[in-house]
Amino acid sequence: xxxxxxxxxxxxxxxxxxxxxxxxxxxxxxxxxxxxxxxxxxxxxxxxxxxxxxxxxxxxxxxxxxxxxxxxxxxxxxxxxxxxxxxxxxxxxxxxxxxxxxxxxxxxxxxxxxxxxxxxxxxxxxxxxxxxxxxxxxxxxxxxxxxxxxxxxxxxxxxxxxxxxxxxxxxxxxxxxxxxxxxxxxxxxxxxxxxxxxxxxxxxxxxxxxxxxxxxxxxxxxxxxxxxxxxxxxxxxxxxxxxxxxxxxxxxxxxxxxxxxxxxxxxxxxxxxxxxxxx
Length: 279
What we know:
Layout lengths: L4 E3 H11 L6 H13 L3 H6 L4 E3 H15 L4 H5 L1 E4 L2 E4 L12 H10 L6 E5 L5 H9 L4 E6 L2 H10 L6 E5 L11 E6 L30 H13 E10 L5 H10 L2 E7 L5 E8 L4
Helix pairs in contact: 1-2, 2-4, 6-7
């Protein structure tokens, strides 16, 4: 049987046309072809005249069709880079976003390696908890999620950090009052009628969508933090670009001092809040 071959560059151009209209079609094509060939994106750039056999070319085309149906590249590859780690991701977890690295930067800029108890609520793939564990080895860090399937992914990702542990539960229900030094959370905050959800159809909606125009889980986490945190403890909460005013207002009404934060694009993205110490 005769085997036919197609050059790397030709395959990429063909796939780029298939994905025309997506946010980053050529980059997606490069990442997926590199994955198919067991190579790196840099190898593709340096070897764009190399020939690819029919079998691998067809595997690549099938993966491109998955991307055309708006499946995230991270699900197709099975992993996503976040902070200093490559994390496994599945359809049971959200794909970690670059903007969430603002939470890691904020924590590192405000808290040294003094031992403390830190909780990542709604840990998903474990991205936040693992990033903090890698940077603050003296901290006791607990990742909590209601999904047992998500926790399995997080546990596999977090091997090798002796002070990192995992717990199944609904937000902080399994924790005691006044025991946490720092609570970090990236909760669901997208309104159920937000058109942006059309781009996120493959990710778990329970980790994306919240009632009350996306504010319900943000408010619930604030309520939980008010009794879980030690006096003087901190809550770091990611939110949507148009929610910072409401989040700060609810925090201040709940006896927190607030510091609003913006991402690299200047969009309101998070709030660092300190629980007041009773007089």
